[in-house]
Amino acid sequence: MSTTPVVRAEHLRKSYGSTLAVQDVSLTVERGEIFGVLGRNGAGKTTTVEMIAGLRRPDGGTVRVLGLDPATQAAAVHDKVGLQLQESALPDRLRVQEALELYASFYAAPADPVDLLDLLGLTVKRDTAFKDLSGGQKQRLSVALALVGRPEVAILDELTTGLDPHARRETWAVVEAVRDAGVTILLVTHLMEEAERLCDRIALISGGLVAATGTPEQIVDLAQGEHVLRVRPERPVPDEVLLGALTGVPDVREAVVEDRALVVRGGGALVQGVLVALARHDVATRDVRLERASLEDAFVSLTGADGADAQPVTTSAEV
Ligand SMILES: Nc1ncnc2c1ncn2[C@@H]1O[C@H](COP(=O)(O)OP(=O)(O)OP(=O)(O)O)[C@@H](O)[C@H]1O
């Protein structure tokens, strides 16, 4: 039995003057999942979620949130969507619980601030002024504020940017707790580790287009270089002999020598091909390790060149 998706966006398009921020984005978010919108800075992620939240009107395409049109049914969408946007700021002296109570007063049937403080690990900070919170605590408060209207879906934009690794991990745990409490989550991030750790499915956005959609594993598999094989020769072998042995071996896409180990990227029957080729060149091996390529490898492979804003890709792969 299929249920209505929480979010269905089809062929969204949005320009700012001559900047085509979102060229063609389609995505579907199902109930109960953490869905990641992943891409580099400037890829069009925030513009996409702002159209989903009804903060911006698309130039083209359609959005439905729980069957509602955010452009024409803004009030109804507002009741069902909790928004945590980049860099939310509150008055310095406002205390944590006061902020929650203030936001709760905007809703007819808000969540209990005490429960939210507990869920987000802020109970001990409830009397602390906003300016005295750490970066991670401010972010958790911003999530609490996004949840105060008891939304069915929460949009969290660059939630952990600027946090140290410890605070980041704590925030991830909070996001999972929120999902476990029954809220569907649309998570905007440029951090691949975050997407891999948290998301059930991801839309990888590049140049205003969807480069790939799927689970983190599916996206990794889609990318070239599905596997990374690391082989250490038993005795020292010159680099050129190691690399030369791989000439013509099918499925090898890239090979380098790192710290005396041969590191080979490729797909298909990579292990067999490499080990047979080395044996033919009398290279005995020990310590053979096959690793799956990371989402980071896939990200680079699917969104083009490394570095700043990626070039638009012209194909979209739905997996
Ligand atoms: N209000 C605006 N006016 C003009 N151009 C804008 C505006 N907002 C975004 N842009 C441009 O649109 C493009 C997409 O921006 P958007 O913020 O959607 O990307 P993003 O993927 O969320 O990036 P980031 O991670 O840096 O927030 C960028 O080139 C950006 O400079």
UniProtKB/TrEMBL annotation:
Entries under InterPro entries matching the protein: AAA+_ATPase (IPR003593), ABC_transporter-like_ATP-bd (IPR003439), ABC_transporter-like_CS (IPR017871), ABC_transporter_ATP-binding (IPR050763), P-loop_NTPase (IPR027417)
Check the record and name the Pfam families matching this protein.
Answer: ABC_tran (PF00005)
**Care to name a GO molecular-function term for this sequence?**
ATP binding
Instruction: Describe its membrane topology.
Output: Peripheral membrane protein
Per UniProt, subcellular location reads as: Cell membrane
Q: What is its main location?
A: membrane
Specify the ABC transporter domain's residue ranges: 7-232
Q: Which UniProt keywords apply?
A: Antibiotic resistance, ATP-binding, Nucleotide-binding, Transport
Q: Does the keyword Transport apply?
A: yes
Q: What is this protein called?
A: ABC transporter ATP-binding protein
Which organism's genome codes for this protein? Cellulomonas wangleii
